[in-house]
Amino acid sequence: MRVLGIETSCDETAAAVVTERGEVLSDVVQSQVGVHAPYGGVVPELASRDHLRNLMPVVRTALERSKLALANIDGIAVTCRPGLSGALLVGVQAAQGLAWALDKPIVGVDHLVGHLLAVFLRYPGVETPEPPALPFVALLASGGHTALYRVDGLSLEQVRELGATRDDAAGEAFDKVAKLLGLGYPGGPIIDRLAREGNPAAVSLARPMPQRASLEFSFSGLKTNVARWVARHGRPGNDRALRDLCAAFQSRVVDTLVTKSLRAARQESVQSLVLAGGVAANRELRERASERGLEAGVRVVVPPLRACTDNAAMIAYAGALRLERGENDSGKLEVSPRTALPRVTHKGRGRRSASAPLG
Ligand code: KG4
Ligand code: ZN
Question: Which of 8, 86, 235, 257 is the residue whose CA sits 20 to 30 A from 338?
Answer without folding.
Answer: 257
